[in-house]
Structure prediction request, 146 residues.
Amino acid sequence: MRPNYWRILPGSFDCFLPKRQTAGRKSTPEMETPGRRGYAWAVGAGLNAALAAVSAKLIASQVTRYGLVILFNVTMWGCYVNSLKSLSSLQATVTNFATNFLTSGLAGFFLFDELLTPKWFAGALLIVIGVVVLSKSSIESKSKTE
Prediction:
């Protein structure tokens, strides 16, 4: 079986670069944390989704705007698919949504002078709590089945 030398990195153009090789070092289970890696991919997907929305509003040139929206969405889907390799679809989707929601709200506040009401912060807090509860409950259920 050939090793997979190609991967998509969240938010970058490095998807065509080979993985860095570690000279003679073997990875241990402590070094490899697929759950954390899955969450990193899901957060990357959420950030790219927010970048697509922001670029659609900020860029003046229509060709550049559509190009960036397509680029960020393709990268977002690549990150999301990679997150599904380590997480359940529910965990990946909720983490992606939470990151997209929080990033889009903060971008609206800082870039477009949008008002963030206490209801928005309450909703954001509930979303973050939900993501934490979901991740903890899925970890506990995995340890019970093993």
Observations:
- Residues 34-140 form one domain.
- The longest helix spans residues 118-145.
